Amino acid sequence: MTPSQPLQAKYLQEDEISQKCRDLLPLLPREKGWITTSIYQYQGFWYPPKVLSGLLACQDHFQAHDTDVLLITAPKSGTTWLKAILFCLLNRAEFSGSMQHHSLLTQSPHNLVPFLENGLYFGQEIPNLASFASPRLFASHLPYHLLPTSVKDSGCKLVYLCRNPKDTFVSFWHFANKMRSKATGEMPLGECLDAFCRGAYPFGPYWDHAQGYYKASSEMPERVFFLRYEEMKEDPHVHVKRLADFLGCPLGKQELMDGTVDGILRMCSFDSLSALEVNKSGKLSTEVETEWFFRKGEVGDWLNHMSIEMGERIDRVTQENMHGSGLKL
Ligand SMILES: Nc1ncnc2c1ncn2[C@@H]1O[C@H](COP(=O)(O)OS(=O)(=O)O)[C@@H](OP(=O)(O)O)[C@H]1O
User: Fold this and answer.
1) Is 0.90 surpassed by the pTM of this model?
2) Which of these, 90, 130, 144, 168, has the minimum number of CB atoms within 10 Å of its CB?
3) Which domains does the chain have, with CATH numbers?
């Protein structure tokens, strides 16, 4: 590896992209990436080439079922946490009584709940799609207007999780630096901040992403559940119960009495998940190290990395880009 070559997880490598994507790339606006050499703007949002290839394949191949549940997030909004919680909620009958053999103890939330647009799954189509029991649970970072038609046309349910953009940005910056080889060194925070404020980073702009789902949730509250990381942190019990209601698997009287919600929240807490061997020293098939998904898991950590002025800049850009949507981030 030459010193200028970033270490790239498989799903970010620039080889093995579809011919459809290869033909499209030269027609698209291009920017320098934080992790990949370049990112491309497609229908208003930015992607590394392999993710774009996965997105196009996903749009062409994915057939949603009415019973599917999709967790949607912008990267670094708390996906790993919600993947674990939704997996526990939807599969709680299987593990009732004892958590000792729970899948989360030995598997990463990212293996149990795969991303739809991950190029490895959708180069052709998710290889083991047929083995997913109903209700199938997937995750995605796709913006609302780029979801496969079958998702919009089916009755499947979407859970959208967003997070304070300043913490999201800092989390992403840390993750990007983990992904870069030691040889290439850290990306300067200021350089990343410029790109973030222009929306030019994977799945950006952040505010457009959140607004797409906020609008969908206002129009179809029975299909799209809009949730914030900070709300989950503040009162997770309330929101887990609301999620169960929304997903059509409400917690019964007995479950509410026997501490089912406590059990799920304990199992999925930052401290529990990050202490598991699989999340400490594991690697995903994409070659991403599982520990990179667990850093601090705190609200307001941006203050430890950015100046007040930098924070105000993100606030200002966020305000400017709200377009009177009513959404407050
Ligand atoms: N269980 C739990 N509880 C609370 N917070 C958690 C949890 N697991 C992961 N995290 C924090 O979420 C941040 C990673 O974001 P994502 O999981 O969305 O990453 S990804 O988009 O799937 O790559 C990242 O946030 P930062 O710590 O601020 O970087 C993780 O630490």
Assistant:
1) yes
2) 130
3) 4-322 (3.40.50.300)
